[in-house]
Design brief:
There is one protein chain. Strands 1-3-4-5-2-7-10-9-8-6 form a ten-stranded antiparallel β-sheet. Strand 3 and strand 4 form a beta hairpin. It contains eight helices and ten strands. With 348 residues, it is α+β, with helices and mostly antiparallel strands.
């Protein structure tokens, strides 16, 4: 006699499972520690002083050195994957990202997402899901929020298409949208300890910076990073999930690599506080050598003592000459991996 089988495993959501207004509280809460900082520096050449030294951070008005902004982003992002992008084809973009509170060792992070848009693709096999994700700490304080959209497979190609809803998202945050951490003060900023002398006034809108250095992506490091952030997307782990049998490098791995490489030329761009837009332009695979360049898009003053804001475009590539972003037809150049538009805080 055949034994009854109860389905207890989770195959993840497919496109037809999402509805606008759906709210998902994601498992599993994660308490971060100094181990995250050490592992982050083992994976990326991250050297920004505010995230490396308690003393430097205290001289800038903070109680301790926080967890790297992008590390906090990865923790919050990773929790969303089983509910949002387990059956994803690709993560397509970001908008309206704001870092609202620093994350310190001992904080416990969890994530919540709301579906704000859905649109089936013309092939009828996939669709795009838009979600607004909130990262909260143990005091139910919002530490960060962002919108992202992801292409997700359909379980049943014949399932009816939902009424398309595409949210209207601003092209960029304004400086008034940015939150400067309480107490942050760059009046007595130590440029020698930070590693470069360049300050807010030294950068001009339109200026482009070649960050010079490159790092070849290793399969083992990518797998360690993806596990660290508890990102369970199949395309990052299972070689049968992609037609060519390769593992797709997690886009956040490319973001952190490019941000770390940008230290050479932007060592004083200490804190990421806003994410205006982002696109993973082309896939990254093990063996690709990531390089980065930046363009200054805007500048603004803040009310915090000694603190200015720069809006930057950060572009990660896998070869080719710097400052080449698009081809003549307006598409991303084939060597471009990432196009990220974000705000940072820098001493004036």
């Amino acid at each position: 006699m055949t034994k009854p089988q109860a389905v207890k495993t989770n195959a993840g959501r497919f496109f037809e499972d999402y509805r606008v207004g759906m709210v998902m509280d994601h498992a599993v809460p994660r308490t971060v520690s100094g181990g995250e900082r050490a592992l982050y520096r083992a994976l990326y050449p991250a050297r920004h002083a505010l995230y490396s030294s308690d003393q430097f951070a205290q001289n800038c008005g903070l109680p301790f050195s926080p967890l790297d902004d992008m590390a906090a982003f990865h923790v919050v992002f990773g929790k969303t994957v089983p509910d949002v992008s387990l059956n994803a084809v690709a993560n397509l973009g970001y908008a309206q990202g704001r870092w609202l509170l620093p994350v310190y060792a001992g904080d416990t992070l969890r994530s919540r997402s709301e579906v704000i848009g859905v649109k089936q693709n013309s092939n009828g096999k996939t669709g795009v899901v838009y979600v607004r994700t909130t990262g909260l700490n143990q005091r139910d304080e919002t530490v960060m929020e962002y919108v992202r959209w992801v292409m997700v497979r359909k379980r049943d190609a014949d399932a009816p298409a939902p009424e398309p809803v595409v949210p209207e998202l601003p092209k960029a945050l304004t400086v008034s949208d940015l939150v400067v951490p309480s107490g942050l003060d760059f009046s007595n900023y130590d440029f020698d300890q930070a590693g470069e002398a360049h300050r807010w006034g030294d950068y001009q809108v339109g200026e482009q910076i070649d960050h010079v250095d490159g790092v070849t992506i290793e399969e083992a490091e990518h797998m360690m990073a993806t596990r660290l952030w508890q990102n369970t997307a199949k395309v990052h782990f299972d070689t049968s999930a992609r037609p060519d049998g390769s593992r797709l490098i997690y886009g956040g791995h490319v973001i952190s690599m490019a941000r770390a490489l940008s230290f050479n030329g932007l060592a004083n761009a200490q804190m990421v506080v806003g994410l205006n837009a982002g696109a993973h332009a082309n896939p990254c695979l093990a063996g690709d050598t990531v390089r980065a360049w930046s363009e200054v898009l805007d500048k603004a003053e803040t009310a915090a003592p000694g603190v200015g804001a720069l809006r930057l475009r950060l572009v990660a590539t896998k070869g080719g000459a710097p400052f080449n972003l698009r081809t003549d037809d307006g598409k991303y150049a084939p060597e471009v991996l990432l196009d990220l538009d974000y705000w940072v805080l820098i001493p004036v």
